[in-house]
Every structure is written in structure tokens, then in C-alpha cells.
Design brief:
The chain is of the alpha+beta class. Helix content is 46%, strand content 21%. Pfam families: Peptidase_M16_C.
């Protein structure tokens, strides 16, 4: 992606494979091990020093769920050479370093270094624990588990503490070799770069990744909702977490996707949305209330924090507000405001290299092409009728309520 918009040039490598219980913890751990050192810079400190020498380049990793795909991303940001006085081929060096991180990790006795693996396992377990401590995130994990039982989407992006415990330097090294063979790799180069030179450099340095067919992986279609699943859980919490999961039967790959985005925007994604105004402000039922739409699984989550005693009324009004969407009880002005917010969000996301890649990567995951310009245009074209029609498909699936233990109430 050739652009002069950014001060830095970025390499963003996406590694995609199906989300499975057997591999989820290993995938969450792997990128952290890789950024601990390479065969040429066999410690985290030496690797950091090399990045510092490249005018403070930055290496970062992430792992996330996109529908039922599990995506590892490794990002390397370097200064744009045009702004430097010397003639270091900085971008080319960055390509070499990224290839080294991927293909030449630091090893001992033909496997990853045990002390590194153990230390990263501890950090990963702390991250898993921190979700449990953050009750809003915890409720989100729980409602997803309950709603998608038996579907890969029920898994978190990090795995469980037990799964992390079971990993050894040997097992993760074997898995790493499988990743190189079987994952789909997409490398994005963003910035003011000499395209031809960059392409030839990547072709040479990433030649270990054999040409492979684009993996066609289908996220499992959402099953029909037979009855609403209600789950209550008690913990020592001061504020109730009421999370409700809806199946929208619409994903990024569908033509109706953008209309669903507008529908979710009107319902709960912004401060002028129905949930915010009615649940939070008019009825003072919730400390917060919002909805989020997952693009590749097609699930809409309503998240709210409420007093324990207000559970019944909160559930009722959250349902009522979606019923109002189905009846078309919203104004053209609200639709226009939502569209403006969505377009603004898109432009803001595209304003940083990472966001631009995220937007483009939707197309890889879904197999559906939709450029940012087309997306903006499709937002403009959504009509009130489209929103009502798309709302009809949406079904409430699961109500999850995390409340305090009896003595607190």
C-alpha cells in the first residue's frame, strides 16, 4: 500500500489459521516467544538494541479472533528513509529483520529456549487472569462461551491457564514448524516505499514460505435460535453485568453487512443510540449500555452494567429497543447521524497504517472485496427500509447475568 500519509513505513504480517481448542494457547504464546530473540540476536535485549539502531524501529505482536479464524499479527514500524540524512536502506533492513524473527528464532538443542518459554507462559497466564479480573471482559467471554457452545467461536483468543501450562519448549517448537507449513501468510507493506525493490526483497527473504493455495475456511453459520438461553452466575461483584447475545445472520461477506452496521449503530454503538439514550439516560437503568457487532461471526453483543435489582426491567427495555428497530421507530435524522459517525470511524481507522491493514484484511478473512470508498458509498446508500428489513433477521440467543452473591444484595 503505497502512501505518503505516514511518517513511518510499516510491515504487518498476518498469519491465519482456523480457531481450534488444540492450538489456541500455542498461537497466543508463539508471537511472544518469537520477539524474544533470533539466532543473530539471541536475547530480547540484543533484539531491542538492533531496533534502536534502526532509528527506534518498533516490533509489536498481537493475536485475535476474526470470526472463527485465529490471526497472529507481527508488526514492524520503521522511520521513512526520506526523512533521514544518511542513506541506510532502512526498509530493506526491516524486511530482513522481520524474516529473521519469523524464520530464525533463537533455539537451544533444536527447540525454543525453555527459560523464554516458561517466562512467556507466565505472562500469558497473567493476561488470561486479567480478563477474569475485568468483569466486563469476563462477562463478554462467558456470554460468548454460553451462546456458541460447540462452535469454535466459543474459544477465547488466548486459551485457558491449563492449556498454557501444558505447553513445553518442545511442543511449541513443533507447532511453530506446522505454522510455517500450514498457515496463510499475508504481508502488508504500508508507506512511501520503492515497490519494485520491496517486492524483490520480500520474495527473496520470505522464500521459505512455499506458494500455497489461499486457504478457504468457512466460519460455521449461526444455528437457528430455538429458545433464549438464560444464564445467571454469582461472584463477589458490586455491579451486575448484563450481556445479551443476538445472532444477526449477517457477516462481512454479505451484501447486507453495511446495513447491519448502520442498524447496530442506531441501536447501541454510539452516544445517540437507542440503548444509550433509553436504557442509560431516560430510565437510569445502567451505568453503561452499548452494543457491538462482530463482523465475521455475525454476532451482536449488548453489554450493560446495572444494579442487581434492575435486571428484569433492563432485559425488558433492551428487548423493547430492538423491537423498536424492527418497527422502524427511528428518524431519518438519527439514520444520517449514525451514517456520519460510521464514516468518520472508518476514516479514523484508516488514518494509521495498522487500521488501514485491519480494514483491508477483512477482505482476506471473508473472501469479499470492499474498498474503503465502496464501503463509504454503501453506508450512504443504506435506507430506512434496509435497516428495518435487516433487523427482522436478528434473534436474541443468550442472556447472561453476572450478579453479586446473595449477602451483598
Amino acid at each position: 500500500m503505497s502512501t505518503n500519509k505516514y511518517k513511518t513505513n510499516s510491515l504487518i504480517l498476518m498469519m491465519k489459521a482456523p480457531l481450534t481448542k488444540e492450538t489456541v494457547a500455542m498461537r497466543a504464546l508463539l508471537p511472544h516467544i518469537l520477539q524474544n530473540g533470533t539466532s543473530n540476536s539471541p536475547s530480547r535485549k540484543q533484539l531491542r538494541e538492533r531496533l534502536d539502531d534502526m532509528y527506534g524501529a518498533m516490533l509489536a505482536t498481537d493475536v485475535q479472533k476474526k470470526g472463527e479464524e485465529h490471526v497472529i499479527s507481527i508488526r514492524l514500524d520503521v522511520a521513512n528513509e526520506r526523512y533521514l540524512s544518511d542513506t541506510t536502506p532502512l526498509f530493506d533492513n526491516a524486511i530482513s529483520l522481520l524474516a529473521e524473527v519469523i524464520f530464525q528464532p533463537q533455539l537451544e538443542d533444536g527447540k525454543f529456549v525453555s527459560s523464554v518459554v516458561e517466562s512467556e507462559k507466565r505472562s500469558l497466564k497473567q493476561r488470561i487472569q486479567s480478563v477474569y479480573d475485568d468483569k466486563m471482559r469476563y462477562a463478554n467471554v462467558r456470554v460468548t462461551e454460553e451462546m456458541c457452545k460447540g462452535e469454535p467461536f466459543a474459544l477465547t483468543a488466548f486459551g485457558t491457564e491449563d492449556e498454557v501450562d501444558a505447553i513445553t519448549a518442545d511442543s511449541i517448537y513443533k507447532y511453530y514448524q506446522e505454522v510455517l507449513l500450514n498457515n496463510q501468510f499475508d504481508l502488508y507493506m504500508v508507506g512511501a516505499i520503492d515497490e519494485e525493490q520491496a517486492m524483490s526483497s520480500v520474495t527473496e527473504k520470505f522464500s521459505a514460505l512455499v506458494e500455497r493455495d489461499k486457504s478457504t475456511f468457512e466460519t460455521i453459520a449461526s444455528p437457528e435460535v430455538k429458545e433464549i438461553n438464560v444464564v445467571n452466575e454469582e461472584q463477589d461483584v458490586k455491579q451486575g453485568k448484563l450481556h445479551m447475545g443476538f445472532r444477526t445472520y449477517t457477516t462481512y461477506a454479505d451484501d447486507d453487512y453495511v446495513a447491519m452496521q448502520v442498524c447496530n449503530g442506531l441501536y447501541g454503538a454510539f452516544s445517540h443510540s437507542k440503548l444509550f439514550i433509553n436504557v442509560r439516560e431516560k430510565e437510569s437503568l445502567a451505568y453503561y449500555a452499548a452494543s457491538r457487532f462482530e463482523s465475521h461471526k455475525g454476532i451482536m453483543m449488548v453489554m450493560s452494567g446495572i444494579e442487581f435489582a434492575k435486571y428484569e426491567r433492563a432485559v425488558e427495555i433492551i428487548k423493547e429497543q430492538f423491537e423498536a428497530m424492527k418497527q422502524g421507530e427511528f428518524t431519518e435524522a438519527e439514520v444520517e447521524q449514525t451514517k456520519a459517525m460510521l464514516k468518520n470511524q472508518l476514516l479514523e481507522t484508516a488514518d494509521v497504517a495498522r487500521g488501514l491493514v485491519e480494514l483491508s484484511y477483512h477482505q482476506v478473512v471473508s473472501g469479499k472485496k470492499r474498498s474503503i470508498d465502496e464501503w463509504m458509498q454503501q453506508i450512504d446508500e443504506v435506507t430506512k427500509e434496509d435497516i428495518i428489513r435487516i433487523a427482522q433477521k436478528v434473534k436474541l440467543d443468550t442472556i447472561y447475568f453476572l450478579k453479586g452473591k446473595e449477602e451483598n444484595q
